[in-house]
Structures are given as C-alpha cells and as structure tokens.
Amino acid sequence: MQDRKLDHIELALQSKHHPIASTFYYEPLLSSHPWQTMDLGLNFLGAKMQAPLWISSMTGGTEKARVINHNLAKLANHFGLGMGLGSCRSLLESRERMQDFALREVIGDNPFFANLGIAQLEQLIEQGQMHKVQNLINDLQVDGLIIHVNPLQEWAQMEGDRYKEAPLETIKRCLDLLKTKIIVKEVGQGFGPNSLISLMNLPLAAIDLAGLGGTNFVLVELARHSALSAGKREALLKLANIGHYNGEMIQWVNDHLKSSKSLCREFIISGGIDNMIDGYQLQLALKAPSIIGMGSAFLKYAENFEDLMEFTQTQLESLKLAQCFLKERI
Ligand SMILES: Cc1cc2nc3c(=O)[nH]c(=O)nc-3n(C[C@H](O)[C@H](O)[C@H](O)COP(=O)(O)O)c2cc1C
C-alpha cells in the first residue's frame, strides 16, 4: 500500500499528454493591470474562497505524503483555496496515519474534503458499516466527502477492486446514508455524457470533471509493473487513451444545465490543467459556477513550501492577467 502511494507520486508526474486549444482573443489595449484592487474571491460549496482554485485529491498514508499534505493545506490557508484529501481508505480500519490527513487546523475555514473510492463505499454499504464513514468525516472535521469513481484504474491495478454494483447506485445510497456534502470525481479520464447527466440529476455539492489529458492512472499502473505480459501492456495502453477532455464535457454540462432536472450546479474543472490561463478559458466556457482543480501541477512543488507559494502566486497573477486581457470569441 505504502509503495503504491509512493509510486503514484513519482509516476503521476511523468504521465501527462495533451495541450489545450485557444478559443479566446488576446486584447492588450483594453485593460490596465489592476493587481491591487482585483478580487478573485467567490462563494463555492457554500463557503467563501479567495480564488477559484482547488488542490485535487492526492495523497496520504506515507511519511512523504504527510509532508506534502501539510504543505498543501498550509498553502490553501494562505491563499484561501479549497483542498481534497487523497484517499482516506487507510483510516477506515485504523487511525494510525491520522496525522497525514487531520489538517483542519492547518487549512483553517477553507473548503476541505475527505476522499474515498466508490469500491470501498460499495463494500461498507453491503456490510452495513457506513457509520465508519460518518465517524471519519466527523473526526477529520471536513466539509464533506469526495467519492472517486475509477473503474479503468481499478482494472489496471493488479491489486485493484472490482465493482459489484453500478457506481451510480452506490452514489445514490451514499446520498441517502451520509449527512454531508458529496462531490463525485473521476481520477483523470473524465465522464461520458450519460454518466455526467446522471450525476447532474443528483443533489451533489459539486461534480469534479477530472478529465483526460493530465495524470493518467492507467499509464501510472503500466509504469509501475515492469513484469506485465505484452498482452496486458497493450490492453492497458489502449485503455489509457479512453475518456473525455474537459472541453467536450463542458459542452454536455452546458446542454444539460438548461434542463430543470439538473440539481447539481457547481463544478470543479480539472484533469490536465497546469496553469490558470487554460483554467480561465475552460471556466468561461462552462455556464455554471466553477473552480479549477490541479493535482500534479501542485505535486511538482509540494515538497518545498516556498516553491509552492511561488507557483501559486504566479498562477493567481496569471488568472488576473487572463481576466484583463483574454476575451471570449463570440
Ligand atoms: C499522486 C496522486 C495521487 C492521487 N490520488 C488520488 C486519490 O487518492 N483519490 C482521488 O480521487 N484522486 C486521486 N488522484 C487524482 C487527482 O485528484 C486528479 O483527479 C488527477 O491527478 C488529474 O488531475 P491532474 O492532471 O491535474 O493531476 C491522485 C493524483 C495523483 C497525482
């Protein structure tokens, strides 16, 4: 388990592909540089954030992960950002690694969410053990739970879980059984239109698109296991390209927002975004409140707090630049 987490940190940084196309005009004449007065703050997930930037769920369960999580939470507090924890699965059985995850005091009042996989939730429901999740949420003092849905990764992982139920049914049960805000995400391969629409019709606090083009866990698993047979390697390579980019998903979301059936109206746009210029363009395209999530872009700097601060400061200034000088093509 610990090895797997470490592998994920190392390999996720090497598994990126896909640039974003520009659909905006650059208008250098029409704005000043209003740095001091520009407010990036917004209300999201029922809380105030100082900028539309989210630290995607990554890690926990190792010493290195503890340092990374502490740095990320401190960063979120400094800039008023939100953060999702990496999978808290290990805490369901023992609180031994609680210090990796219990960051409420570090992150302050900013949005802070626990994270579990749909496979664990399916098992806990089956065993009548969902009180363990509610206890975890209470102990971590989080604002809610992120559920990750990752059937391709589970299949690619030698030690991966298999679902007995369709994840949609498990998510509905979680909404019934848990008294907390719930976000649903993929882990970097996005959602097709019918999955997205089904999610939008549920009373979720938000959907995190976690689209294709960045960290790709099928490629991560491929890199972890050098002893895989040629047949399995080929099958995994094929799977790695399956999924949906943010641009495509945003169109489906926009179409369905017009329907009165859509109950979930906040979105985290993430997956393959490593700068706020791209993030801003995607945000403008999506016709609902949204923020930008980044995983590996933060991870790259996460062991050194000064580097993280510098990266984030630059990204927030990029966002201000984008808001001043990039205009939507109509
Ligand atoms: C090292 C690492 C560990 C991750 N662990 C989790 C996890 O435990 N739960 C989860 O929902 N997503 C996990 N993810 C996926 C990210 O939350 C995110 O969806 C994905 O990395 C795509 O974003 P990116 O391209 O900006 O990295 C992990 C990502 C990385 C890089």
What does this structure look like?
There is one protein chain. The chain is of the alpha/beta class and 330 residues long. It contains 16 helices and 12 strands. Helix 2 (63-79) packs across helix 16 (305-325) and helix 10 crosses helix 13. The model is unreliable at 16-20 (pLDDT under 50). The structure holds flavin mononucleotide. Flavin mononucleotide (FMN) is lined by residues 8-9, 12, 56-59, 86-87, 115, 146, 148, 185, 187-188, 210, 214-215, 270-273, 294-297, 299.
Fold topology:
Blueprint: H1 2-12, E1 24-26, E2 42-44, E3 47-49, E4 53-55, H2 63-79, E5 82-84, H3 89-93, H4 98-101, H5 104-107, E6 112-117, H6 118-126, H7 131-140, E7 144-148, H8 151-156, H9 167-177, E8 181-185, H10 193-200, E9 206-208, H11 217-224, H12 230-240, H13 246-257, E10 267-270, H14 276-285, E11 290-294, H15 296-299, H16 305-325, E12 326-328
Parallel strand pairs: 4-5, 4-11, 5-6, 6-7, 7-8, 8-9, 9-10, 10-11
Antiparallel strand pairs: 1-12, 2-3
Bound molecules: flavin mononucleotide.
Q: Overall pLDDT, averaged?
A: 92
Radius of gyration: 19 Å
- Individual helix count: 16
Give the termini distance in whole angstroms.
Answer: 50 Å
Low-confidence stretches: 16-20
- H-E order: HEEEEHEHHHEHHEHHEHEHHHEHEHHE
Task: Report the strand count.
Answer: 12
Proportion of beta-strand residues? 5-15%
The distinct ligands, each listed once, are:
flavin mononucleotide
Strand order of the largest sheet: 4-5-6-7-8-9-10-11
Basic shape: globular
Indicate the percent of residues in helices: 40-55%
* Biggest sheet character: 8 strands, parallel, barrel
Classify the secondary structure makeup into a structural class.
Answer: alpha/beta
